[in-house]
Specification:
454 residues; 20 strands; eight-stranded mixed beta sheet; alpha/beta; globular; Rossmann fold; serine protease; signal; 2 domains; Peptidase_S8/S53_dom; Alpha-Beta Plaits; protease; 11 helices; S8 family serine peptidase
Length: 454
């Protein structure tokens, strides 16, 4: 990470927030032994003072609003596995630096010749050889990627062409459309990496013809979220026909293990993941930004990355790419990325602001301190009334959508393909970095778009 003084000098507006986990007395996760609440159970929950906000018979879960005494009063309801007070978790927000900005034969950055004028800032596309996949004819058409995140800037020129109208929010009181001007929006940045449109403007996503289903599960103001939103979001995305679910979500410092209450909340989330898998959805998540060895951390879980059935992605980055645009190593392990051979499945470009120098470099006509260009450049906000904002950001949050974008390319190439086969192609096509075979930092390799669709 850069020092605070360097970030402020370039209007870096977003920092990682402290870890918190506070009980939300007004919200409960109710799990049944079967798949659905019966009418008698619904009546008993109402008699105990509970109001069912959401009933998910697909996974045997209900979200119930009630007062502090509800759990004790509902203890006698027959057929319930558990009644657990929901937890509000603080998710990690990446550092970001703002940039106020506004079917050919493709080449990768930095000398692509692209008419999307900021594509040459996207070193991550070179790292994964996105142009190689596009030149073979695969751009994600027909694929749907659900972005479970903090909402999205619906009017952004790089987002709007691919944004589905059934995008929605599971954060009470907040719309899916991010409406805070001049501010970084995490979900927009993630979605832009996946599927920013190839429209002669701004940036290009890994799968520029895939569709984005934005599902808001984190507050666009605080970055916090509850299990209820994540569980509902996974089920909704699966039911809406998503091929891929991207969760660039990571609880700061991990989710503590051991408590019975937390175990029940995790179990409910596992049910949602299993349901999505049954609907042929591939689920991809960021591994977290705590620089933790997940092989030897017995006290916490990287949530949701370490849930069974979720592909966990670590982050790679260059160092001072601006000094050597054509020869720099783009695949260094990012300084902040969680790692561990048992936990990491794949790696993707996540960027890093770790380069210690503060001298300027020039890339794609922009002059900035060289460390800035090591971040991942993508859409991230808006300026009223009709302006677009782009940001450099770093994190495993940026690595996961590179992998999700490649998965979308595969789903687009092979309509009806099984998610398990897509995962196999991602692993087989990845570049084997680090030690041969599975590696602590790269898993089974850094994803490669051209090789995965070949």
């Amino acid at each position: 990470m850069k020092t605070t003084s360097k970030r402020v000098a370039l209007a870096a507006a977003v920092c990682a927030l402290a870890s918190t986990a506070s009980v939300q007395a007004a919200s409960y996760i109710v799990q049944t032994h079967g798949n659905a609440l019966s009418q008698s159970q619904l009546n008993a929950i109402a008699a105990a003072g509970g109001t069912v906000r959401a009933h998910l018979p697909q996974i045997g879960v209900a979200i119930v609003d009630a007062d502090d005494g509800f759990k004790a009063r509902a203890a006698g309801v027959s057929g319930l596995r558990s009644v657990t007070a929901d937890i509000r978790m603080q998710f990690d927000i990446p550092d970001a630096v703002v940039q106020d900005e506004g079917a050919p034969n493709f080449a990768n950055p930095p000398n692509s010749g692209e008419d999307d004028t900021r594509f040459d800032l996207q070193w991550g596309m070179k790292a994964i050889d996105a142009a190689g996949a596009w030149n073979a004819g695969w751009r994600g058409a027909g694929a749907v990627v659900a972005v479970l995140d903090s909402g999205i800037v619906c009017q952004h020129s790089d987002i709007a062409p691919n944004l589905l109208p059934n995008s929605t929010s599971f954060v009470p009181g907040e719309s899916v459309c991010h409406n805070i001007p001049n501010a970084f929006n995490h979900g927009t940045h993630v979605a832009g990496i996946i599927a920013a449109a190839d429209n002669a403007f701004g940036t290009i996503g890994v799968a520029p013809e895939a569709k984005i289903l934005a599902v808001k599960v984190l507050s666009g103001v605080t970055g916090s979220g509850e299990f209820a939103g994540i569980i509902q979001g996974i089920v909704y995305a699966a039911d809406q026909g998503a091929n891929v679910i991207n969760m660039s979500l990571g609880v700061t410092d991990g989710l503590p293990k051991g408590g019975a209450e937390t175990a029940e909340l995790i179990n409910a989330t596992k049910r949602a993941v299993q349901y999505a898998q049954s609907r042929n959805v591939l689920i991809i998540a960021s591994s977290g930004n705590d620089a933790r060895d997940l092989d030897h951390d017995a006290n916490t879980i990287a949530f949701p990355a370490q849930l069974p059935g979720v592909l966990a992605v670590a982050a790679t980055a260059p160092e001072a790419w601006g000094h050597d645009l054509n020869g720099a190593d783009l695949d260094l392990p990012a300084s902040y990325s969680n790692y561990g051979q048992s936990a990491i499945h794949l790696a993707g470009p996540g960027g890093d602001f770790d380069y210690p120098g503060n001298e300027n470099c020039t890339v794609a006509g922009l002059v900035r301190p060289c460390w800035v260009f090591d971040g991942v450049f993508a859409p991230g906000g808006f300026v009223p009334p009709n302006g677009n904002l782009y940001f450099w950001a770093t994190g495993t949050s940026m690595a996961a959508p590179h992998v999700s974008g490649v998965a979308a390319l595969i789903f687009g190439k092979y309509p009806g393909i099984k998610a398990q086969k897509v995962e196999q192609l991602l692993r087989a096509g990845a570049d084997d970095l680090g030690k041969p075979g599975k590696d602590d930092f790269y898993g089974q390799g850094r994803v490669n778009a051209a090789a995965s669709v070949d």
